Amino acid sequence: MVAGIGVPICVQCGTTSNPCRCKVVGPTLGFLAFAAAAIVEWPVGAFVYCFKHVKGRRIMAHPAAVVYPRVTNAIPYLIKTSFLRM
Fold first, then answer.
1. What is the 8-class DSSP label of residue 18?
2. What count of Cα atoms within 13 Å lies in the side-chain half-sphere of residue 8?
3. How would residue 6 be classed by pLDDT, with cut points 50, 70 and 90?
4. Residues 22, 76: contact at Cβ < 8 Å?
5. Beta carbons of 44 and 58 less than 8 angstroms apart
6. DSSP strands (E only) in 26-77
7. Residue 26: helix, strand or coil by DSSP?
């Protein structure tokens, strides 16, 4: 059996930012940026939480509350692919 690690492809449909009403590039890069930020910020937030609960929670929420939405919304268009046309 062969196991491999694939690149996640995230599709967000129903948006009004482009004529196709779907985004692929923004959500995918947003997920990758979220994962990279979470690898760094969650252990730091857990350590800070031991001393300052509110600050630790804010640090651990940063990837989901700030990083993912900013990266996702920064790229409003998609790569035109035939499988996304509905």
1. S
2. 13
3. low
4. no
5. no
6. none
7. helix
Dist CA 7 CA 42 (whole Å): 22
How far is the C-alpha of 67 from the C-alpha of 25, rounded, in Å? Answer: 15
Question: What is the rounded distance in angstroms from the CA atom of residue 34 to the CA atom of residue 65?
Answer: 10
Structure confidence at residue 31 (pLDDT) = 84
Asked if 23 contacts 77 with a C-beta cutoff of 8 angstroms, the reply is: yes
- Name residues whose C-beta falls within 8 Å of residue 20's C-beta, 6 or more positions apart in sequence: 78, 80, 84, 85
For the segment 11-26, the average pLDDT, to the nearest whole number, is 67
So what's the pLDDT on residue 60? 94
- Give the dihedral of Cα atoms 58, 60, 63, 64; nearest 10 deg: -80
Stretch 46-57: mean pLDDT, rounded?
Answer: 95
Sign of the alpha-carbon dihedral angle for 51, 57, 58, 60: positive
Percent of the chain with pLDDT over 90: 35
